[in-house]
Structures are given as structure tokens and as C-alpha cells.
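Sample intake sheet
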Amino acid sequence: MPRKPRVDIAGFHHVLNRGVNRENIFLCDEDKREFLRILDATRLVYNLTVHAFCVMDNHYHLLLETHRDNLSLAVRQINSKYAVYLNKKLNRVGPLWQGRFKSWYVFDERYLWVLIRYIEYNPIKANLVERVGEYPYVSTWFLVNDSESELLAGSLLDCTDCADLLEPHGADSSMLSDLKKAKYRKQADAFERRQARLLPDYFRKDDLPSRNAAIVSACKDGYGQSQIARYLGLSAVAISRIVANERAKAEQFERMKVKGLFWSYSQDIRYDVAKEALLIETVLKYADMDEIKILFSLFGKRRVKHVWTGQIKNDGRFKKLNYFLARIFFDIDAEAEDFERVTHDRADKLRLLAGQN
């Protein structure tokens, strides 16, 4: 199968490359500093703006802005210079990189900031540090330590209030994955995301699982939050909160999946509005108190209570849990004995069917 042609035009690009066989290629602090020195030299030669970077042990992420159509030339220079440095240092031969570098064209502002958060959170995801900016080979280290860097001259991190990046919540990797897979088209000398559906189509009453789900779907397909706000007659702040809330639901779903609580589902399963009840039921049954509190903040008491009443309340296996939820979360003046008499409806039906055979 032929390789997908690389978008090499001037603009913002996410660049990623790994060591061959995913082996470590940045073996010490000196190696990481040398890579950043090479990046800085290449920036000057090829007129690049480095907006964000992260150098891990076996790979790197860069957010580069090119001002000419020279991305491939610039990144090949970076990779080649570093390969020469490390091969000479270790007296090794053979390829250093896993293959040709990967790159994605960043076609709108929303994609840009999701990507920056993703890059900055890489050391946290790898359990190297606990907070953004603590790892010395990521761009926000300079922000946190109030240290100037020629490498980041003119970057968004250098010119913008980036306090949101330092908030203690993770980047949305699933959203970034959706954005990477997006289809876009060339318009004049720029690329824009292809929007296959008109905005009103997302909010048709006969095809509307929920308004919030429709908002998220429209955002994923490239519509701006301000566009959606104007169409729905809502404020941009309201749309932003809805998107953030739905993102938090998806993140909680991912945490439950990682813990193996969706034992009968594929690892490819992802959150959508149809799995809302599944998430609520799973968190109530098996998650810890912190996750239950998050659940109530995301869905509200009414929605959680509706799922609890329909899926858990009448299940005799969870009588202690039901008593706890009733008293603490639903303000029901119940006694433990009220749930002692509850039977497991599904088991009763199975026993009834077995007796008829």
C-alpha cells in the first residue's frame, strides 16, 4: 500500500519519532540537551517556530510552525544530526530511528491546544513527574521555572497565558486521536477540516440522542464552539462547559476500562451517550468513593438515581451498597432491613424458567 503523502506546507505540524524497535535513544540528560541544541540550531537555519516539545527516553514530540514548505527538510536534519551524534558517542552502526518521522498537520486552534496539552502531559502519563512543568525536557519547564529559552522564542507558550495547562487534570488523548484521523481538504494554500454535515443536521429531533452528544459530535467534526453557541442561542461559556463535562465522562469511562471493570467488553470500546447507563452502573457498583463523587458531579443526582433504581436497587447482591447510596447520596430515609428483603430479579426469573422445564 502506498504511503500517505505528507502535508509539507507552511503551518503548524505535530512531529513524532521513536527509536528503532522502540529502544531508548536518549540515554542521559546530556543526550536530551544535545537533541534540544540540534533542534535550536535547525530552528534558526529553517526559520521554524518551536511551540512545544517533549523529549522522552525513546521518543520525542514537537509542535513546529513552519513559515516555508520545508518541514521534511528540517526534521530530516534534526534526526540525521542526532543520529550522527549518538552513533559516534556509542560507536554504533545502523539505523537509529524506527522509520520515517510521523507528522500531522494542525488545522485549527482547538486541535492546537489539545495537542499542546497532550505533549506537556507526556511525562505525567509515564509516571516520571506528578505535575506539568516538573520534567526538565518539556517546554513548560521554562514556564514554571520562569526561565527564558531562545528555543521557544515566539512560541504560544511564551506569548500566552497558559495557566490552564498547569491544572491537575490529564490531556484528552482520545480527542487528539479523533483529530488526527480527521479528513481535511486543501483550500487555496491552506488546509481546513472537511465538514461533511451541516450544523443543523446534528440537532435534528429525529436523530438526537442528546443535545450534549450532538454538540460533542459537531466539535469533533470541526465546528467551532462559538459557531455551535450562535446556532443554539447559548453562550460560548455554556458550550465550553458542556464539552468539558462530556470529555470528563469519557475520561472516567477510560479509567474504568483500564481497571478492567468492563470485563466483557473489548479494549477498543469507547464512551458515547449510549454507554451512559453502563458507566453509571459500573462506577456505583465497583469504583471507589472518589470516582462516585466525580460521577455525581458529571451526571447529577437525578440521572444517577434513575440508573440506580433501574439497575442496582433491586439486586440483592448489593444490599449494603444500596443502603449506603440511599442514605448518603439519595437522602432516602431507609433502613438496612429494607434491602434485606430485596431479591435478585434476574435470578428469580431464571429459577422460574428452570422450574417450568
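Comment: Strands lie at 11-18, 48-55, 59-66, 102-106, 184-187, 190-193. The radius of gyration is 25 Å.
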